[in-house]
Amino acid sequence: MFNDLSSPLALLQTRRSGKPRDLVAPGPDDAQLRQILEVALRTPDHGKLAPWRFVIVPQDRRAALAELLTHAYRAEKPDAGRLEIETMEQFAHQAPTLIVALSAPVAGSKIPVWEQELSVGAAIMNLLHATHALGFAGGWLTGWPTYNSDVHAAFGEEGQNLAGFIFIGTPGRPQDERPRPDYDAVVSIWDR
């Protein structure tokens, strides 16, 4: 069972992202989405800088997002085929709820940029935990749109970076487990 809500620990032990292409309605309502984002804000943040931003892309703006993505993709790859363009359109329309996350480090702070960038990852993880705790599923994607300058300009300011697209909804089909790292391969005891 994925995203077991019987206890906080059970949820963490069974957490499974949803594949954005498989997420269907319902997604969170406005109050639930605010609750999810408020949980994201309760994240480790050395210096209390809030070095992240979240942009909600409502359903009525998804066609505009699809247009942005397809135009930017064609500008970068003028020989793009039909399937590549359809992939961009599909990306914009998957899942009922979409949040764009940005890393927004505070320039000139004594807190290293690296720590500020780690904080956005922690904020997104909190966002996903809150999503799953409310009974939805979420998926965090990066990929081509995250690194395109036209897409960046539509969401971020100078000095910010797109950290990814977080899609939220209800799984439309049973979720599959994915390979997980072996404990002994990634955990060790310091002995120097």
Explain the overall architecture:
With 192 residues, the chain is an alpha+beta fold. It is 42% helix and 16% strand. The protein has 8 helices and 5 strands; from the N terminus they run H-E-H-E-H-H-E-H-E-H-H-E-H. It has helices spanning 8-14, 30-40, 62-76, 82-93, 113-133, 144-147, 149-155, 183-186, and strands spanning 23-24, 52-56, 97-103, 137-141, 161-171. Strands 1, 2, 3, 4 and 5 form a 5-stranded antiparallel β-sheet that branches. Helix 3 packs antiparallel against helix 4. It starts with 7 loop residues before the first helix and ends in a 6-residue tail after the last helix. 28% of the residues are buried. The model has no long low-confidence stretch (mean pLDDT 96).
Structure in a nutshell:
The protein is α+β, with helices and mostly antiparallel strands. It has 8 helices and 5 strands, in the order αβαβααβαβααβα. The longest helix has 21 residues, at 113-133.
